[in-house]
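Posting this for the archive.
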Amino acid sequence: MTLRPYALIVLLFGQVHALAQTDPIDFSLGELVAQEVISVARKRQEIGDVAAAVHVVSAEDIARMGVTTLPDALRLVPGVQVAAIGNNRWAVGVRGFNGRFTNSLLVMVDGRTVYSPLFSGTYWEALDIPLAEIDRIEVIRGPGASIWGANAVNGVVNIITKWARATQGDAGQVTVGSEDKALVYARHGGALADGHYRISYQGRTRGDSRQLNGDSGEDGWRTHRLGFRLEKFLGDPGELSVMGEVFRNDSRDLWNVPDTPPTLLRTTRFTQRDEGANLTLRLNRVLDHGREWALQGSFQYVDAQVGDFLSEVRHTMDLDGQYRFSAGRHDLVLGAGLRYHDQEAVGYGFFQVAKPHNRFGLASAFIHDEITLLPETLTLTAGLKFEHHSWTGNEWQPNLRLAWQVAPSHLLWAAVSEASRTPARVEFDMQYASQVVSAAPPTRIIFRSADSLAAERVRSYEVGYRGQPSETTHVDVTAFVMRYRNLRSVYNAGVYPSGGWFIVDAPLRFDGHGVVSGVETAVDWQPSTRWRLRVSYTHLETHTESSGQSLTDAAADFYMQRVPTDQFSAHATWKPLPGHAMDLVLRHVGALVNRDPGAPAIKSYTELDLQYGWRVSPKLTFAVTGRNLLNARHAEFGRLYMPSPVHEIERSVHFTAQWALD
């Protein structure tokens, strides 16, 4: 490994103290402590008062990291595991259970749930929101189910976009480079009577990664998105917000699919097409004496085609309402919601769906009470959410949190909470036979839906500290233990011959147990107005209870443990001159704990990103970014449930120009 990057780091920090104190960083540490979050309790709170492991990725953070995708914007959040599976696939998880089909992380856009009920996770390649329109990303590590319900098991990611009134006028952005061949964004914002609107377009073309043997990864990516947002004050009814988009995503992929013996595996190239539209309406009214109410409804249409293997057409309708009021020492939020899915999933070849057309949904209600025990010192929060799902019946998800302001800008907190994950469609009435486990005799596994469904459950214990030990330093530390039951697993129900194969019948079942524990730390240090350093470290331990059956234990480990034990990151921002900024991001990710027997290990890696930005004028900015500079290419994640080869992410460089026309 060359010493040049480390020499560059020493040079960067060595020059800081020789420079004059001008052109300050865009926000101070005091503003960091006073940042507002809304995702923890469905109301505005200062992050310094919140009894939860919460982190905010601001619009400024995203711009300074030089990233071009949402998953990459989450890489520096403590406790979040992000791995690029290829150039158009990501594994994003919180506190374990990582994979492309991560099902314990709830992802929302402006409070609208975007996870797919097909596997209870998020297709990140289809969620190509323009980063220029994101105001902030609020990330909660740990259960958030007492507020947000199903699937907020290990964490919540709420992507909050900018108000239309904050994006007025015409603006554009173009990125070209070795990975993103072309990324184009254009926006127009205007005013209405008592309101504002925004219309925008984003399109992207991305090249292929590489396989381990150096061949093309055949995972190019093309996206198109047309979006709009409108806000209008209606008088007594309150403020109306309307958001919508139409999108198209084409992502190439490469699978080694089962074939007729003796061939066993056949390389198949295909394109996954995702297209759809969504519309969200939100009406919010602020009343007197701390009272306010909000009503939100959304509709989503999705049409997805995974080559010649699987198709999905889905209509989802969501209705959610809440009311906030105060009563003495109590600050209460009450709410209820309905969600309805009309889905048709059709399988071909090694995918089979018992009943393609299915309708299902859930109803929910919650109460959240923040009780002031000692004014400005001690606060107790109690919450409870009830949900009824079409497949698993009733679920109760409680939450208890204590916040103690031991001194100004010093918060100690503790929490005990429970959450549940409702089963996905793939666990309800589908089967797939994608894995070949032996060539002699030719043997493959058929995974099929469970004979009886149950919701996975977790009980979480957390303690944390968040504070400002000095004027230049901010510290956030969380320790946790999460105990799981009813975890998804499989078992060997027998072997039988079929079509030249021996078939292992492996039904799903929900009887697994596991434990995840760890520590998450983040330190911000800003010794001057010219530079800032943000460091984070995460240590994670995972454990599954043995069932005594090799297939069951291997499946449980594969499901839960595909994460690194240790992660470290450092992000330094330096402003040498007015209008100029240089950012350095150093990342170390440990080796993945679990891998397939006989498959290549995913080793630990260290990478460096650099970005230099120049604000030529108030309306014109240039930036050049180098990513993954320490290695020509490296692997971040292994094989998926689908039989795809391991991909390596290459070193890349891109240039960005951003301008405003008025």
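The longest helix spans residues 4-16. The mean pLDDT is 90.
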